[in-house]
Amino acid sequence: MSTPYDIPEVLDRREGPYGEVVLRRHGGLLQIIANGCFLMDTSDGRSERLLVDAALAALDAADTRAGHGPRPDPRVLIGGLGVGFSLAHAAAAPRWGRITVVEREPAVIEWHRAGPLAELSARALADPRAEIVETDLVAYVHETSATFDALCLDIDNGPDWTVTEGNDGLYSAAGLQDCARVLTPGGVLAVWSARPSAEFEETLRNAGFQQVRTEEIPVARGVPDVVHLGIRPG
What we know:
Number of helices: 7
Pfam family, one: Spermine_synth
InterPro entries: SAM-dependent_MTases_sf
Protein name: Spermidine synthase
Organism: Streptomyces prasinus
Strand order of the largest sheet: 7-6-5-8-9-11-10
Keywords: Polyamine biosynthesis
Structural class: alpha/beta
């Protein structure tokens, strides 16, 4: 016999600047759908947390290799607010000095500030270190004069499998050069992907990033999620 949980409940539907975005509840999960494509839900969050932790660990290791201790109050840029796991995890870590989140969908920001996703992010958004910038990430890293010690980017399914028009520019040589431009010397670029990409690793190296490596996040079934890491030279 079917149950009410078999059918997702649409909580909000918006026509945003990049198409339709939908927030729905499916059982105990909240889900974000963009232009009919499932993006993410609140089921786990391990990979989003690893994205932040791996960036901080790589930053500290790079500083140690450079002959000095971990830098105080590092600044992190999180690309993509999503369901808020990365923001909440970064805000729970006292090491971060400034946490900037870039999100281009106004509806997603509203769902966090005054909607159902506030249950995941309200404490983080109240943190004085945190700010949300409403803009496109690709444009932001190209235009901003701000600099960061770490970039944690999770705006699509990864470099080999983008579902949003324009996001592939972030993973190109030009996009990675923009990322390097806003990183401080010895800063870390961490990029989440739904599957490993040897081609993207090579693009990172060709863009000048050093100590390029990939960390895997085991999933229940299928190919592991990964975080691609690279260091901007000092």
